[in-house]
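Before a colleague's protein record goes any further, I have to sign it off. I want your independent view on whether this chain really folds as the tokens say. The record follows directly below this note.
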Amino acid sequence: MTQPHDPLGSGAAGRPLQVETHGLDVIADAERRGTPRSLFWPWFGANVSVLGLSYGAFALGFGISFWQALAAGVLGIAVSFLLCGFIAVAGKRGSAPTMVLSRAAYGVRGNRLPSVVSWMLTVGWETVLTALATMATATVFSSLGWGGGTETKAVALLVVAALTVVGGVMGFDLIMRLQTWITLITGVLTVLYVALVADHIHWTTVDAIPAGSAQEFIGALVFMMTGFGLGWVNAAADYSRYLPRGSSSRGVIGWTAFGASLAPLVLLVFGLLLAGSSEDLSKAIAADPIGALTTLLPTSFLVPFAVVAVLGLVGGAVLDIYSSGLALLSAGLRVPRYLAALFDGVLMIAGAIYIVFFADNFLGQFMGFLTTLGVPIAAWAGVMLADLALRRRDYDDGDLFRPHGRYGDVPLGPLVLTLAATAVGWGLVTNTAARWLTWQGYLLEPFGLGGKTGAWAYANLGVLVALALAFLGTLLLGRGRVRAQEAQAPSPAPDAEVLNP
């Protein structure tokens, strides 16, 4: 009998939907399927959100010109998602979640530290995306005269949270199918949005925006990196792990980076043009990044806009909740994967309630969240990328779960390097809009960078420095350790007793 057409190339369309039973375990050869091209769908669907338009206002908020913001955005998006592509190669080489493969660098139980940071980042992102979808829905309903107050926000939050939690709990197959439809629907509606509001662009106004300093440009570049690829890098192998190990590494890198970057690059350009044409719009986006975009629309398109906004944000939140559950398991929680995702869903709802009903100055808090967790994640990514570059063989399945195997239990070198890179990084970032982050930036004065109010205060150099220090440190100090690991004979396959050491 002919199987239903499967645009993912994953075999998912031919099977009935069921809750994914895989957690941290290695995917068996018989279950690895698809081609690198199938990675386009989840990554595009997760990043086609109209939030990409708002990043135009965020970038210009650093005090730079259109051309500087465009360069910062293109470089930040392309480079950061290329890092995701490199780490996605680990997935097809090890067929395990990202934060399990990270054990090869950090040790089986030493890896719990970066797993906790990864969990915090993904829970934070899914919370932010859920809150944005809720606020956008309320804004649309208010514009239509259908309400928009507390009751509307509460209902919208429940609907968005339900879609996100169900996707995360069900797992890989449902996510892959969802992302295909989200990609198609949001892609078409986003193009319509662009066509409807194009007449609000005034190139003369945009071109007249004065240029900013090199430090302001770097600040925008780092913000774009943390807002895009560095927000996903800790989950980059969670989907490529289902590919056959013989899949093309170049294909994995290319389709991951291309799928993730395509929509944000297009949306950024248009967002820059819109925000640069209206100072009032830029200010409104800081308070309600999605809802503010409705002010440009005719009433007839408000409902379709709500659909594209919610679906785009849900697409990202679903991937986040799936990966946050895996990170929580890797941190040491011993429950089935779907319960971990459900637990994260409860935290997500609580956090979204705070953002929607109680928090003010959304942009300041959002930037503070990104830069603070972006520093340790950048340090982890540096270690992971260098460790992956040093390896010539696939990971040993069994020893990823054995504290006394070749990867070790709690090796001090990678942990100390990560902590040191993080400490230096936090000393070189600032965010005055978030009161709880005023302790950062403590190295700006000793390093001669002008202190917390100088020209380098908002360049957020700490993210790039943490990435570079961790990467170079691992390349210099980790070669011997990796060679010793790869010289050992293969270990027995893992059994149920070692999956959660």
About this structure: Confidence is low (pLDDT under 50) at residues 1-13. The radius of gyration is 22 Å. The CA atoms of residues 197 and 296 lie 6 Å apart.
